[in-house]
Amino acid sequence: MNHKPLLLTEAVNVLLTKSAVPATLTIEQCAAALAMSMTSFRRKLSQEETTFKLIQQKYLNELCVYALLTKHVSIDSLVVKLGYSERSTFERAFRHKFGITPSQFRDLSLVGDKKNQQNLSDIAQNMSPLPNSCLQLLQEKEQDNLDVERVVEIVASDPIFTGRVMGLASKAIYGKTPRNTQEAISRNLGINTVINMAVVYGVKDALESQVEQRVIDQSTHAFLIAPKFFQLMRKSVVGDIKFNSALTEQVLIFALLGILLLTHKNSAKHELILHSLQGINDLQSLNQHINQAMNISIYSASTLMLSLWHIDASVIKQLNHLDKVSQQKIKGSKQDELELFMLSCLYVLATRHSDFSGLEQKSQLLGLENFTEIKTLLFTQS
């Protein structure tokens, strides 16, 4: 991982910004403008773990939404910059992607006020409490009193959660179907995963009537897949990267919980967020736009919920750290970049976007092995 500033990436973004029609800017024109050969240009971008196509597509996607959120650019001017010959063609493409017209999206961005974080804090504080079995697991984990037998006992006290544990452990990706709860916990899932799943199901039940069923179901599915996804991804990492497995699993499961809070029907801008989830397939870009519209990110919305439930402070600390890395406020480590990549994958799964090309290119730049096989196993068969 290159920890130096992404100088060439920044230079390409400057060229895109200066271009009257950035959609038509070619890789050859960029290399020539920077007085570099094509071979050197591609090699140096690869060292910064990106490509010209990725930079340009990300720039155009962000330009589109940023222009609509800020009203700094008219829709007619935006049509030209994005390379469309007619406004009607752009509007059809936008509606197909986001579910509403550009004008409607701009109008939704104006709903609400500057007190969005207080609005979300009030929603979180008024959520139904987590189930007793979940609270008991969290409390005894904090006291370091848990072993498999005790976890089985607590889970058995909640018939609904028992059924969910057995259902999850019986999925093909977790191996041989367990005969009982003890096998499901000790062999298929593990204590930490069961505790984390208790929180996920608790949130799902608490928000079932407040968030669109589609969003609840798809997000929960991604959260439940996260532990197995991490196991497979860890094996595909080339190099000496030592994860804190328990912490990383929690980060991957809980980092996107904020989606549910942001799409809560009482959230001031929940309609804007719903359409943004539909139209934006890049997690970093989505976080940037949510920050512009609401001065909060998915990660910070997640930490807002987690802090109320007294989840391990190290999880909240790492989410705050990743938020800063994602916003390029601080430089990230190789482990940070891998965690953000895994979260991007889980976001695509949670939102049911079908274009994996950007993730596949990024996996190659990160030097990950067997990502295509992992994607097929978890994202198309789960």
From TrEMBL:
<dbReference type="InterPro" id="IPR020449">
    <property type="entry name" value="Tscrpt_reg_AraC-type_HTH"/>
</dbReference>
<dbReference type="GO" id="GO:0003700">
    <property type="term" value="F:DNA-binding transcription factor activity"/>
</dbReference>
<dbReference type="InterPro" id="IPR018060">
    <property type="entry name" value="HTH_AraC"/>
</dbReference>
<keyword id="KW-0805">Transcription regulation</keyword>
<dbReference type="GO" id="GO:0000976">
    <property type="term" value="F:transcription cis-regulatory region binding"/>
</dbReference>
<dbReference type="InterPro" id="IPR009057">
    <property type="entry name" value="Homeodomain-like_sf"/>
</dbReference>
<dbReference type="Pfam" id="PF08668">
    <property type="entry name" value="HDOD"/>
</dbReference>
<dbReference type="Pfam" id="PF12833">
    <property type="entry name" value="HTH_18"/>
</dbReference>
<protein>
    <recommendedName>
        <fullName>Transcriptional regulator, AraC family</fullName>
    </recommendedName>
</protein>
<dbReference type="GO" id="GO:0005829">
    <property type="term" value="C:cytosol"/>
</dbReference>
<keyword id="KW-0238">DNA-binding</keyword>
<dbReference type="InterPro" id="IPR013976">
    <property type="entry name" value="HDOD"/>
</dbReference>
<keyword id="KW-0804">Transcription</keyword>
<feature type="domain" description="HTH araC/xylS-type">
    <location>
        <begin position="10"/>
        <end position="108"/>
    </location>
</feature>
<feature type="domain" description="HDOD">
    <location>
        <begin position="127"/>
        <end position="325"/>
    </location>
</feature>
